[in-house]
Write a structure and sequence with these properties.
about 140 residues, 5 strands
Length: about 140
């Protein structure tokens, strides 16, 4: 499987690179080309940093309530889980990792993220209710 990307991902969207060079991504297993990606020029890096800074300073995320951030992470993890086999295949091709290992790494993200939205129980639930406004001791979200 060869995956070629012709654009960078900046500010939540694909943008044409400002530089002209590309990097071949090769499998360490057999040296075959498994993809190609733009080589970020200094201007690409500057654009990405400025965009990220603006998103942090002016965007919604820093001011978003914790419960809404949890909802975003939940949606991402659920989507990620549906494509974990594809991501594992890319890791295997790009890094030469055994397929079973790459799959374990890709699914471990979802496993680690799930406690973020599972209802807290017992003393942990009480501590969370005290520490995070809007979250009750039973994991319910109040607004």
């Amino acid at each position: 499987m060869t995956r070629n990307f012709t654009q960078n991902f900046v500010g939540g969207r694909r943008v044409d690179p400002l530089g002209a060079d590309f990097i071949e991504v090769r499998s360490p297993y057999d040296g075959s080309q498994v993809g190609a990606v733009p080589l970020a020029a200094q201007a690409d890096v500057d654009l990405a940093v400025a965009t990220a800074r603006k998103a942090f300073d002016e965007g919604a995320w820093p001011r978003m309530p914790v419960v809404d951030r949890i909802a975003v992470i939940r949606r991402f993890a659920e989507f990620y889980e549906t494509r974990s086999d594809e991501f594992a295949g890319l890791v295997t091709a790009e890094m030469g990792a055994p397929a079973w290992f790459a799959k374990a790494i890709q699914t471990s993200f979802v496993i680690r993220a799930k406690p973020i939205w599972l209802p807290p129980r017992g003393i942990l639930g009480k501590c969370i209710a005290l520490a995070i406004p809007g979250v009750t001791q039973f994991g319910s979200v109040t607004r």
